[in-house]
Amino acid sequence: MKSRLLFSAGLALSLFITACDKNDRYDPNNGNDQVTLGYRIKAINTSSNAAQRSTAGTITWTSGFANPAVIKFEAKQQNSKLEYTATHTGQIDLFAFDPVTFGNFTLGPGTYKEIELKLLFRKNGSSPALQLNGQFTGTTMTAPVVLMIEGPLEIKTEQKDVVIDNNISYVAITDMDLASYTDDVTESMWNNADLTNGVIVISEDSNENIYYRILSNIKGKKHKCHWHH
User: Fold this and answer.
1) Does 52 have pLDDT greater than 70?
2) What number of other Cβ atoms are within 10 A of residue 190's Cβ?
3) Residue 13 lies inside a defined structural domain of this protein
4) Residue 39 belongs to what domain range?
5) In degrees rounded to 5, what are phi and psi of residue 204?
6) pLDDT (tens digit, 9 = 90+) per residue, 5-39?
7) Does 195 map to a domain?
């Protein structure tokens, strides 16, 4: 299916261009006026270096997952506030070529204003809310890195308004800009990090100075969300 651009959200979580073939337009004779909205999350900008950001050295993320537990769609329509909530159990591969769609909602067509899309990540059994695996390469050392956030962790995007057409299914894709997560983590902090079996483990109990800087960057970030159908 061809695609067209629907919108680019104002909170930082890259443009996702989509278009629509004329055959996808609403047929008033089919009697279907419901719209399905699903969510996806995907890692982008998986490598950062000193030339691009305040981070010294290079951190390259190679794999990772998240456990989205609660998904919310909040908006206003015709001066009424709407809120839809869905739950999800299951791990999402952030590096998948074709991300899993989850948290599907059924919406009516029309114009939605002051939209907020929220994702709440939670620990699922022994699996953390969010985990990233990668490698740090500096001027004096190279080591594997594992980031584990036990959670809960909420990320959200906002959009002023969007028009939902009849009889079309939409997907909202939240981009997780990994390169920005290590902003303000200096090379000295990496070089002096504690190693666990040769690995830089970043968690609430290990290398806390790096952990809380990354956590603050994620929570304070303006994520982007892109819609397509």
Assistant:
1) no
2) 24
3) no
4) 33-228
5) -60, -25
6) 333 333 233 322 222 222 233 333 334 466 788 88
7) yes
Amino acid at 56: A
At 20 the three-state DSSP class reads coil
Residue at 194 is within a domain? yes
Tokens 């907020």, located at residue: 116
DSSP β-bridge partners for residue 188: none
Taking residue 102's Cβ as centre, other Cβ atoms within 10 Å add up to: 18
Over the range 103-137, which residues count as b (16 or more CB within 10 Å of their CB) and which as e? bebebeeeebeebebbbbbbbbeeebbbbbbbbbe
Which pLDDT score is estimated for 48?
Answer: 66
Confidence at residue 142, expressed as pLDDT on a 0 to 100 scale: 92
Q: Which residues neighbour 175 within 8 Å (Cβ) at sequence distance 6 or greater? A: 13, 14, 42, 44, 223, 224, 225, 226
Q: Which of 75, 35, 84 is nearest to 229 (CA)?
A: 35
Mapping DSSP to helix (H, G, I), strand (E, B) and coil, where does residue 209 land? helix
User: Which residues fall within 8 angstroms of residue 82, CB to CB, at 6 or more apart?
Assistant: 73, 74, 75, 76, 112
Taking the C-alpha atoms of residue 124 and residue 69, their distance in angstroms, rounded to an integer, is: 9
pTM equals 0.78
Query: For 97-139, how does the pLDDT look when each residue is reduced to its tens digit (9 = 90+)?
Result: 888 888 888 888 888 888 888 899 999 999 999 999 999 998 8
Tokens of 93: 């591969």
Residues 222/167, Cβ–Cβ less than 8 Å: no
Q: Indicate whether 88 pLDDT > 50.
A: yes
DSSP letter for 226, please.
E
Phi, psi of 206 (to 5 degrees): -145, 125
The conformation of residue 165, written as its DSSP 8-state character, comes to P
Instruction: Give the phi and the psi of residue 217 in degrees, each rounded to 5.
Output: -65, -40
